[in-house]
């Protein structure tokens, strides 16, 4: 098939998947008034093949699945992810995440498991499938390993095997796109010891598989208009608690079976690609934050003030540091196993950490420049009532007419002060791994020997 249209993608979701949202089972994700927004958001990753074939199509297939074989391939992948995110107002769209997982499987799996991963990769490429990735387990007591949890189902694990299949039970959480993807790739979330063998499992299944249930988070629920919610009325991601109730997986779809040694490397290989994705899909969000800061400063008439110029300069430095590091991560890439090129893990993690650690300060700056109307401003009903609109136009005009100012403020409020703003704040801190996980990878990826030896020499300290 090669490439699917957005319409073929929507049609593919019409199966008997078990999706629950706001207390009820959903008949059709595409027909649901709120969930359909997420489908349209993700459909952008199919539309882009028609709009930007130079970036989004490689050898007649989706470029998202093109295996990186050089620095240039990674640079082009970054450009594609940035471009699709630009159309999605600075958020991840869909195909990025599944392709990150496929590259990790192709790099790390061995023997028959590699052959199955390769066959599955080829199917995804040929049929242009959209994949969600369930890596994060619910994890229970954080200080305990999988096999030491009081409830054994707090990490997904193998409960049975036969000649042709394995059966798994447990739950993953925060699974983005699960309700509107074709298939789900499951990866281990951490390194595992010999006692955790049952938990060292990876596979792929269609979403409409018996025993699989998705409980979708209700954040940003309800109808929202584009005046009050210019961003979140157009873009939505779905995350689920993803429950496996004795789900049988045909063995030809199992990529890791009771192989704890490979659990950690597979988890990390995914993270290395996925954080490269993250730092590219965040780039339009950085532009949005910078653009909004300049617009609101000018709208309030404070663009020339010294403290404002200082704050804008700091925002620019933060945003351009992340952008520069994102580019450097591709430049410093190196060839890994099976000729798959890997973005430089040190640079990727510093970029992701710089973004995440600076995000909350950036939002505080934006809130500061915008003023209190982020919380107390008028809504769409007020604006649509002529007598009230007259009052708003008179009293909320500043350096620009009131309508312009209110629209800029509502945009910023949606991004920072309303529920979608809360979602973005958590996303910045935890998605693609927590800030602490990034620090851990930075420390692991940096070899201090050169710096230590140099300093020893200068200090006259022998080894
Ligand atoms: C919007 C969003 C989308 C996401 N999408 C996906 C997805 O599509 N697929 C997927 O698999 N995951 C996804 N994630 C999950 C994301 O990777 C996790 O949220 C992240 O790894 C943190 O895990 P957690 O939420 O369980 O928090 P926790 O791991 O509980 O972290 C909370 C705090 O505890 C600390 N901590 C945790 N364990 C320990 C320990 N043993 N010792 C000391 N400190 C510890 C952490 O460093 C952190 O400071 C998504 C998350 C978000 C917010």
Automatic annotation (TrEMBL):
This is Gamma-aminobutyrate dehydratase. Residues 269-460 form the HpaB/PvcC/4-BUDH C-terminal domain. It comes from the Bacteria. Residues 6-256 form the HpaB/PvcC/4-BUDH N-terminal domain. Keywords: FAD, Flavoprotein, Oxidoreductase. The keyword Oxidoreductase applies. Pfam families: HpaB, HpaB_N. InterPro entries: Acyl-CoA_Oxase/DH_mid-dom_sf (IPR046373), AcylCo_DH-like_C (IPR036250), AcylCoA_DH/oxidase_NM_dom_sf (IPR009100), HpaB/PvcC/4-BUDH (IPR004925), HpaB/PvcC/4-BUDH_C (IPR024719), HpaB/PvcC/4-BUDH_N (IPR024674). It comes from Mycolicibacterium gadium (Mycobacterium gadium).
């Amino acid at each position: 098939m090669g490439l699917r249209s957005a319409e073929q993608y929507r049609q593919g979701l019409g199966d008997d998947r078990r999706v629950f949202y706001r207390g009820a089972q959903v008949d059709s994700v595409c027909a649901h008034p709120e969930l359909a927004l997420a489908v349209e958001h993700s459909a952008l990753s199919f539309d882009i093949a028609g709009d930007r074939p130079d970036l989004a199509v490689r050898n007649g297939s989706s470029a998202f699945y093109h295996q990186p074989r050089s620095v240039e391939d990674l640079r082009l992948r970054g450009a594609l992810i940035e471009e699709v995110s630009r159309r999605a107002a600075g958020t991840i769209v869909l195909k990025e995440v599944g392709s990150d997982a496929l590259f990790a499987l192709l790099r790390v799996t061995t023997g028959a498991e590699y052959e199955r991963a390769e066959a599955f990769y080829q199917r995804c490429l040929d049929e242009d499938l959209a994949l969600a990735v369930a890596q994060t387990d619910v994890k229970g007591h954080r200080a305990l390993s999988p096999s030491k949890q009081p409830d054994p189902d707090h990490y997904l694990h193998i409960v049975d095997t036969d000649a042709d299949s394995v059966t798994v039970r447990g739950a993953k959480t925060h699974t983005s796109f699960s309700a509107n993807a074709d298939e789900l790739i499951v990866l281990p979330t951490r390194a595992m010891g010999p006692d955790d063998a049952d938990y060292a499992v990876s596979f792929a299944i269609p979403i409409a598989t018996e025993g699989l249930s998705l409980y979708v988070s209700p954040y940003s629920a309800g109808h929202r208009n584009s005046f009050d919610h210019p961003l979140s009325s157009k873009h939505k991601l779905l995350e689920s608690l993803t429950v496996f109730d004795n789900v049988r997986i045909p063995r030809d779809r199992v990529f890791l079976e009771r192989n704890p040694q490979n659990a950690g490397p597979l988890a990390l290989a995914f993270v290395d690609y996925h954080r490269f994705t993250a730092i590219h899909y965040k780039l339009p969000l950085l532009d949005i934050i910078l653009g909004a800061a300049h617009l609101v400063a000018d709208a309030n008439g404070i663009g020339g003030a010294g403290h404002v110029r200082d704050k804008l300069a700091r925002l620019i430095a933060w945003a351009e540091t992340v952008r520069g590091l994102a580019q450097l991560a591709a430049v410093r890439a190196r060839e890994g196993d099976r000729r798959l090129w890997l973005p430089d893990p040190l640079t990727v993690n510093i970029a992701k950490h710089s973004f995440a650690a600076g995000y909350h300060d950036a939002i505080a700056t934006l809130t500061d420049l915008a003023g209190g109307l982020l919380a107390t401003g008028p809504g769409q009903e007020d604006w649509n009532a002529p007598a009230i609109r007259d009052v708003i136009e008179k009293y909320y005009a500043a350096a620009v007419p009131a309508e312009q100012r209110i629209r800029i403020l509502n945009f910023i409020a949606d991004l920072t002060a309303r529920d979608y703003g809360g979602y973005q704040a958590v996303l910045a801190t935890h998605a693609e791994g927590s800030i602490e996980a990034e620090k851990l990878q930075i420390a692991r990826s940096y070899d201090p020997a050169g710096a230590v030896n140099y300093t020893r020499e200068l200090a006259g300290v022998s080894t």
